[in-house]
Write a structure and sequence with these properties.
alpha/beta, 38% helix, elongated
Amino acid sequence: MKRNMQCAGTIIAAAMLVAAASPARAQSAPESYPDRPIRLIQPFPPGGGADAMARFVGVLLSERLGQTIVVDNRGGAGGAIGTEIAARAAPDGYTLLMATASTIVINPLVNKVPFDPVKDFDAVVSAAIVPLLLVVHPSVPAKSAQELIALAKSQPER
């Protein structure tokens, strides 16, 4: 069981990280990488699902690389604060971002953010798929997403 968890953990560790620099801006990695601790920015407050995953990934990645991984919670603004810090970090491979759909996709679409998710980051891998559910109270007369959208448009004041 422990061996299976270690194998799964290595896959998850490799798959949850987004590098804070595009290859065009990145410096070539030294052969001794990593030779100092790596900062894993988690752009949400401690205690949530993303934080738990970041800490899990940090432990496994630390074991795999033989280097300390420091999980740095930088919550606020729907993940934009921590994501901006990662975007402005030196492109040396020592700052990584635990990205979610809300930080990289949704936030830039609905808010003005000081980073470009396409130009400022390169995805390393994707390891976790977390389904999102849209639910309504049983008294709401909508039975599908399309019906809910139509209902919301017909009652903009509500």
